[in-house]
UniProtKB/TrEMBL annotation:
SUPFAM superfamilies: PLP-dependent transferases. The lineage of its organism: Bacteria, Bacillati, Bacillota, Bacilli, Bacillales. The keyword Lyase applies. It comes from the Bacteria. It comes from Listeria newyorkensis. The keyword Translocase does not apply. It catalyses: L-glutamate + H(+) = 4-aminobutanoate + CO2. This is glutamate decarboxylase. It holds the Pfam family Pyridoxal_deC. Keywords: Decarboxylase, Lyase, Pyridoxal phosphate.
C-alpha cells in the first residue's frame, strides 16, 4: 500500500492521501480524508474511522446509501415518525445511474434537483427546499456525470447546517466523489468538499477511472463508526446485531 499526500501539520490539505490496492487498513483511513492538522499523533483516533474497498463506486454508493437509510430509520423511529411512508434522497438530476438503482432496490424516492443552463450542478437552495423528515441524505457529486461540474459541497454543507438548526430529523451529506476525489486534492487543493465539512459523513471513490488499474476497485469511507450500522457477526454464536 502506498500513501500520497503526507501528514505535515502545516497545511490543511496535506492530510489528504491516496491509497492503492485492496489492503485498506484502518490506519490509512484518517490520512485519506481527514485534515492532518486535526490528527493527534498520540491519540488512537483511527478507531473512529471506518471504510471498505469495493468493486467500484457503484457498490460503494450502494453501501453509502444503505448506511444513510439505516441511520435515518434509527432517527425516525426514535422520533415516532410514520415508518410506512417512503423515504427520499436529494440529488442532482445529472447523477450517475447507480443512484437510480439504489432508489429501486431500496424503495427510496429520488428527489432530483434539475440542472439548468445557468446552474449545471446541484443548486443548494433548491436541494434544501426538497428536504423533509423523510430525507435519508443529500448526495453531493464530484464530478457530475452529464455536465462535468462539481456540486458546491461547501455551500450545501452551510445550507444544511442552517436547515438542521430547526429540523426534527437531521440531514447529512454523502459525497459521490467517484472520479473527483482522485483529481481534486491535487489539482484544486483549495476546494473544500470532504470531511473538513461538518455534514459530510461518508465519501465514495473509484480506483479504476484513470487507467492502469485492471480490476474494478473503489472505496467508501465514513467519518465515524457512528454513521454506520455495524453488525458484529460471530458465526458460531447467537450474537448478531449492532
Ligand atoms: C463512475 C461513477 C460511478 C460508478 O462508479 P464505478 O466505479 O464505475 O462503479 C458513480 N458515481 C459517479 C459520479 C461516477 O462518475
Amino acid at each position: 500500500m502506498a500513501l500520497l499526500g503526507g501528514n505535515k501539520k502545516d497545511s490543511k490539505h496535506d492530510g489528504i492521501g491516496l491509497f492503492y490496492g485492496e489492503g485498506l487498513s484502518e490506519q490509512s483511513l484518517p490520512r485519506y480524508v481527514i485534515p492532518a492538522d486535526t490528527i493527534d499523533e498520540n491519540a488512537d483516533q483511527r478507531d473512529e474511522f471506518i471504510g471498505t474497498s469495493t468493486v467500484g463506486s457503484s457498490e460503494a454508493c450502494m453501501l453509502g446509501g444503505m448506511a444513510a437509510l439505516f441511520r435515518w430509520k434509527q432517527q425516525a423511529r426514535n422520533l415516532g415518525l410514520d415508518m410506512s411512508k417512503r423515504p427520499n434522497m436529494i440529488i442532482s438530476s445529472a447523477y450517475q445511474v447507480v443512484w437510480e438503482k439504489f432508489g429501486v432496490y431500496w424503495d427510496i424516492e429520488l428527489r432530483k434537483v434539475t440542472v439548468t443552463k445557468e446552474c449545471l450542478a446541484l443548486d443548494p437552495d433548491k436541494a434544501i427546499a426538497l428536504i423533509d423528515d423523510y430525507t435519508i441524505c443529500v448526495v453531493g457529486i464530484m464530478v457530475l456525470t452529464y455536465t462535468g461540474r462539481y456540486d458546491d459541497i461547501k455551500a450545501l454543507d452551510a445550507a444544511i447546517t442552517t436547515y438542521d438548526k430547526t429540523s426534527k430529523v437531521k440531514v447529512y451529506i454523502h459525497v459521490d466523489a467517484a472520479s473527483g476525489s482522485l483529481y481534486t486534492p491535487f489539482m484544486e487543493a483549495e476546494l473544500e468538499w470532504d470531511f473538513h465539512l461538518d455534514n459530510v459523513k461518508s465519501i465514495n471513490t473509484s480506483g479504476h477511472k484513470y487507467g492502469l488499474v485492471y480490476p474494478g476497485v473503489g472505496w467508501v469511507v465514513w467519518k465515524d463508526k457512528a454513521w454506520l450500522s455495524i453488525f458484529n457477526v460471530q458465526p458460531f454464536s447467537s450474537s448478531l446485531g449492532p
